[in-house]
Each structure stands twice: as structure tokens, then as C-alpha cells.
Amino acid sequence: MTERIVIVGGGTGGTVLANRLTDDLAPEIDAGDVQLTLLNDTPEQTYKPTFLYVAFGKKELSEARRPITDLIDTDRVNFVVDRVTGLDTGEKRLSLEDGSGLAYDQLVLATGANLAPEEVPGLLEGGHHFYDPDGAERLRDALADFEAGHLVLSVIGVPHMCPAAPVEFVLMADAWFRERGLREDVEITYTYPIQRAHGIQSVADWATDLFEARDINLETFFNAEEVDPEERVIHTLEGEAFDYDLLVGIPPHEGSDLVAEAGLGEEGWVSVDRHTLEATEAEGVYAIGDVADVPTSKAGSVAHYEAGTVADRIASRIRGQVPTSTFDGKTICFIESGMDEATFVEFGYGDEPVVREPSKLLHWGKLAYNESYWLTARGLI
Amino acid sequence: MSEAIQPDVTIDSRGATCPGPLMDLIGKVKKADSGTVFELQTTDSSSKNDVPEWVEKAGHELLDSVEHEEEGYWSIYIEKTE
Predict the structure, then answer these.
(1) pLDDT single digits (tens) A259-306
(2) Which residues, at least 6 apart from B73, have a Cβ–Cβ distance to it below 8 Å?
(3) Across the strands, what pairs with A378?
(4) How many CB atoms lie within 10 A of CB A138?
(5) What is the distance between the alpha carbons of residues A163 and A332, in angstroms, rounded to a whole number?
(6) Is B20's CB within 8 Å of A194's CB?
(7) CB contact under 8 A, A329 and B19
(8) Is pLDDT at A368 greater than 70 in this prediction?
(9) Is the peptide bond before A67 cis (omega within 30 degrees of 0)?
(10) Out of B13, B26, B59, whose CB is closest to A193?
(11) Residue B1 pLDDT exceeds 80
């Protein structure tokens, strides 16, 4: 009997997983014993880390997109462009927007995170962000016109994708305005919800020192509750009113309605065992990437490593072996600390990462990785 | 005292490194109604200081903090106020 594996989501996690499975199970797929389907709601994949550079006019959106059929082995993967509208984990069946259904034996959810700026009144009208293509382009245009005033980056939504990106943004903005001779006319403030500049203590310590050295204001215990776009004021949960001229607000994120409606996890994040990535509320279901509720960053590197674990576990099961591969929380983030220097951190569950001294070499390493990312999506690195 | 506290929402942040237990709590408190009682479960010892500090600043009420020595985690009880 043919084992049907379905992956929902063609982002980093979904394409790495499809490629790992075609590598691991090529003989079984070729023999017709395994059928692998990848579903995505668009024919293209978008590499989101590019957006940060788009905001500063350093990259174009076209550089962030590739057809998914260029990234996978289409002889072995049935790639379907459609949206999943329903999931019945009891019947092991997906409903699709085109009215058809799709049965599975093993299902992997890799649907990512969705932005929900509407959760904060006034944020859509009063704030910018660089977390989707349109937002990055609008912010690029706003920054290009901004020559004086108070630039505020407020981390509003937690958890959010790429936890280092807001720190990178203000450090890059500082360097960018200096290069353009405008820094003395632009005040920069970074706000964060908890009592330090970042969720990870060592990153917070590092960022706090850099902010001080570069004259970037830091506001902590700052949770935007409402934005007044007319008066350009942020009202916080802590009772403060904070003025801005240009607001970059990292919006709240939410998981998938599909996940919540299927009873797989609160607020659309799939409840999983943090090591096996198997759903706690259904059999034969896994989650990887941003949609998986695990205690580490919502970052591409996490999706990448999780995909390897799930590929190993599914392949073991199909071969009749006991799956032993587990995910240890491995996360790697490059962090830009200006326009021409960067550092990086690496950590697993419960680890406190060491922030290395920023260097030009690491900045070039980040840019080089961004260029070679498509090899990761293809399962090659 | 904690024996009597029946949380409306339990937040399991045990093992969390990033974004961290306090951020998990803030995210839930933002969306909750006044009067909601939370139990934050955390293995991060710094939560014992971080959470009360934020709760005071935001004007909510810290109800109790209980260490589960054998299991290696703390339960911190908070009530959201107006």
C-alpha cells in the first residue's frame, strides 16, 4: 500500500523537507511505495530575510522570489498550488480551496506565521514594518523621504519572526543615516516588551552596549496597546504616551486558523513535542518552522534543522525502523550590526549564546549566505 | 495560598529560551479580559524577578510564586487588572 506524505507550506521548512525526503526515500518513491505531495498557496517561495535590505534600498523584491518548481525534484514531488481550507485529523484528510480533498498518512504542517497588525488599533494606519513584501517597499519609500525627526522601532508582537531583525534594523538605520549625513537630525528609539533589549540575555547585553555607543535610545517594558496615527503617539499597556514621527512597529503574529480549527493548538500554533516535532493532539501529524510551538526563535534556520529531523523520523517509520532523530532546538542567526559588519549566534534549547565580536567578514558571510540560501531550499546545504 | 488559586489560563514556558517566559505572559495578558488569572510555568530563574517587575509596572497583581523543586520549575500566579 502506498504511504502518502503531504507537506503543507512551501517555505524554507517545506522545501527543505521535500528535498530531504526525496533524497532519503528515492527508491521507495520510484517504486510507487511512497507518494510525496507539497502544497503551497503560491507557485513561488519568498525568502523573507531579504525584506530588511529592501527597506534600506539595498535589494529588490525580485531577488527574494523563486519558483518552487526550481527548488524541488518535480519528478518525485507532486507540487500542488492550492489553499487548504480544512483538516480532519481523524479521517486524515485535507479539504482544498478548489473543492477537492487530499488524504494523507503522514502530514507535515509548515504553514509559517501570519501578520496581524489589526490586533493593535491604529498600527495599520500609523506604522510601517518590513515583515512582508508590501511593507518593506512602503518602508523603503518612507525612509527615503525621512530626513529629520524621531524614528521609533517598537517590537509589538511577540513571538515574531526573526527575533534579531528589529535590533539589526536600528543598527542599520543608525549607520544608514550617518552615511547620508542625516544622523544628527534623526533621533532613533528602540522599544522592547520586557525589561531588556532582547529575549536572549546575551543578545540584550550586546545590543544595549551598542545602542549606547551609537546614541540609540532604549525603552523597555514597552508594550504598544494602541497607535494614534493623527497625533503620532503610541499608547502602551504600561500607561505611557510616546511620540514618534516615523514608526516601525513589528506587528503581532498569529498562526493558522486551520490549526486552531483542527484542534491542534492554541492561537494557530501547533502544539508539538519539542524534540520529535510530532503533534500532541493528533497522530501522524508533524509541524516545522514558525507554525510549530517550540521554545526557540521563529527563524529560517530552525525550520531548516527541524525539517531534517522530521525527514529522518518519517523515513525511519516508512522503512519499519524506530525513529530516533530528535531536534535539540538548534538555531543560528546572523545579526547585522551596521551596514558593513555583523555577528552571529548559535544556540539550542536552554542555551545562552555567545555574541561574537562583529566583523566585516561575518557581514559578508551573511550576504553570501543570503545569496546561497536557494541551495538550502534545494536541500544542498 | 497557591493551593486556592485556580488559574483561568496556564502558560507553559518551561524550557523557553527565546522569546522567553515573560514575553509569553505579556502576549497572553494583552489579549485577556480584566480579572483573568494566569499561571506562568517557568524554568528560567530570572522570571522570579522579571515577572514581578513587569506586573508592578503594568499595574497588574502578583498573586503568588511557588517553586516546584522536584520538577525544577516555578509557577507564578498573576491577575490582570484594569
Answers:
(1) 999 999 978 999 999 999 999 999 999 999 999 999 888 999 999 999
(2) B14, B41, B42, B43
(3) none
(4) 15
(5) 11
(6) yes
(7) no
(8) yes
(9) no
(10) B26
(11) no
Contact of B39 with B10, CB cutoff 8 Å: yes
User: How far apart (Å, rounded) are the C-alpha atoms in residues A363 and A334?
Assistant: 8
What SS3 state is found at B29? helix
* Residue A287, beta-bridge partner list: A109
End-to-end CA distance of chain A: 33
The x, y and z cell numbers of residue A100, run together, are 477537492
Closest CA to B24 of A19, A205, A113, A193: A193
Q: What is the pLDDT of residues A87-100, one digit of tens each?
A: 999 999 999 999 99
Measure the CA–CA gap between A345 and A212, rounded to whole angstroms. 21
How would you label A83-103 residue by residue, b for 16+ Cβ within 10 Å and e otherwise?
ebeebebeebebbeeeeeebe
The tens digit of pLDDT for each residue in A240-256 reads 999 999 999 999 999 99
How many Å lie between the alpha carbon of B7 and the closest alpha carbon of chain A?
A: 17
Does B15 sit within 8 Å of A349, measured CB to CB? yes
Give the DSSP H or E segment for A123. Answer: helix A123-126
**Residue recorded with cell 499595574:** B59
